[in-house]
Amino acid sequence: MDENGAILPPGQVGEIVVKAPMVMFSYINDPDATADIKKFGWQHTGDLAYRDEDGYVYVTDRKRDLIISGGFNIFPIEVEQVLLTHGAVQDCAVIGVPDEKWGEAVKAVVELAPGKSAKEEELIRLCKDALGSVKAPKSIDFIAQLPRSAVGKVLKRELRKQYSSPPSAN
Question: Sheet harboring 139-142: ordered strands across?
């Protein structure tokens, strides 16, 4: 479904929505969040995907992770997949950070493999060559360890929180 409630044809990316008697009823004490996930009479999952001509669904990303930079939709997973092809990159997360000119800028946070090194310019060039300059990170930070949940999932919300606030004055 698109943002206006239209069910999309095959090949177009939109949010996965469902109708079933067994979907979540509501968020406890949060009528605004409940209304948001029940727009247009459908249960909104927060997953972005497209259907092919045979009806198979391909998940592209999470809606909350989508980066909109200068009016372009950028799926972090596309950028992450390119970064992970570099031999020095053990893991990475791509997020949108506030940008005065473009609304959001693409930022990569990279965890290097033990004993390996890479330069910011090298990884940005890799992404530009594979995806073009709009989708390539504008900056890359190298950190020892990405924040993770108890089951090992990278916590992008923690990174967004860290990079959305102004740097502290020391």
Answer: 89-99, 103-112, 139-142
